[in-house]
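In the current project phase, the collection of sequences with tokenised folds has grown. A representative record is quoted in full directly below:
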Amino acid sequence: MIDNRWKISRRIDRMRWDRGAVILLAAMGLGLAAQAWLRENPGANPWAPLDLRDAEGWATQGKIADLRDDPVQCRAVLKRSEVPFTVLAAAGEGSCRRTDRTVLEEAPLSPSQPPTTCAVAAAFELWLDKGLAPASHEIFGQPIERIEHFGAYSCRRLYGRDEGPWSEHATGNAIDIAAFVLRDGTRISVLADWSGEHKKGRFLRHARDAACRSFGTVLSPDYNRAHADHLHLDQARRGVGGVCR
């Protein structure tokens, strides 16, 4: 009787060990599969170095946000992503001093490529490649040839007031987008085409929504009348998720 009990106890212990071994092996297998998946999907891997050419994932927005206060890291990202850029010398004084002046050499900005902060440049490149280009092909069947802007730098306070907070434009940490021109010459204007369910309106609202994944603040005609003719994009830190209106 005692011998039978001992045998039963040994059998139970062995079953428990076998079950534990199976669970451990399964966990190891899942861990290896997860690592392989993260290697293939760096946009969902918070530890993978940011490359603007990679597909977007849930970790991309946080990585872009981390560049806002780190121009050195930001320039490393542009180099890794093979984005041509130039760094200009610091300029300006006081609240309008710009210590980070970065120019995207091949961005289709018109009338010229303005100096912005590196964080704005990286966000713009991501927006162009992952947001604007797919939308223009899907809606219009052709690429964007030119993006018209109202400038990036303006040494002023918000809304040009005499007092109050300084605008992000005062340090070149913003850019105002007025219109998009397609390869066939079609012009899509924020002022003229924002409202309505036509193709141009749908594209503009898609452009605004896509920008919210890259920039800290995105303001459109839906925000107020001061933005009726442009999309304001900047890289100020404004809490989790930023501002998207």
Summary: The chain has a mean pLDDT of 90. The chain has two domains: 1-40, 48-244. The longest helix spans residues 2-40. The chain is about 40% helix and 15% strand.
